[in-house]
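Worked example

This section walks through a single chain of length 311. The input is the sequence exactly as stored; nothing has been trimmed or padded.
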Amino acid sequence: MKKINTTWSGVYDSTGYLFSFAKSLVCAVKNSPWAEYAEDIVATSGFAFRMWVSADLCPSATSIWQFDMQKPWVENGGLTCEYVGRYWGQDIIEEKKRLEAIANIKKSIDAGIPAISWDIGVPEWGLITGYDDNMQMFSTLAINEGCGDSINGSQMAYDQLGKREIPILSVLTVTGKSDKSQEAILADTLKLAVSHLKGEEWCENAKGLEAYPTLIRHFEERFNIEAAWNLEYFLGTYAPLKYYAWKYFEKMKQTELATIYKAVYEAWQKAFSLKTSQDISQMEVRDQIAGLLKSAHEHELKAVDIMSKGI
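Given that input, the structure is written out below as tokens.
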């Protein structure tokens, strides 16, 4: 067995629900020779600005986007990577793509970098941290495992890759860094952010700024106590993403945008804290949460205007 001993420790996640692809990406980069890119990559890949919300609050809304865009989005941030995907209706290439993905995973593990993969323990993004050719088994770290400093992963057979609960294949491996300048990365990050917030990227659900009114409605006229956890999931998924936008703009000395995203992060984080500490069945609590989301929405509308001018 060749294995990388890693945990989620050191990945900033203020709610415990940070979007699983972003969390996996940060962890993989932290374990690479290019760890200085780890905190930036959530913003520079555009994921700090991506939001998807379904009308019925199904958590799978966060997993319905263009998986094939992982490679160009991550490479926008100055890293290089390899990607293998196989989706619905592509059974004819299933084995070919699985073997290609396994080869990439093993190469990444040999380089000391976990591989980012869809559905390796729960139907979310997680990490493949090791492999054993004799046993034909991967070591895995699902998003709900290995909290804190405890190394607590699982195993998955090679032949289960891409064939688990939601049987699609999607594996990204970080392979290096490019010579892209920080100035070029910033310019393209603004383009990615604006494109998503304006709803230009593909998704079957409300996306970007459209996600705000969709989510807010569930705290106002469409509230259903049975969807309380779903509301928590969406608040918790996106709140820490805003932190990464704030910190990236702060690092790049984009003072106005940093100030805006600090306020956006704090609004989402406070909304999440209210949801988890107060009685959401009380209208005044829901009104407070809706008000915080409306404030964040207004700030991001302003951010789009500012970022559009910088493109």
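What to look for: The first strand starts at residue 2 and ends at 3.
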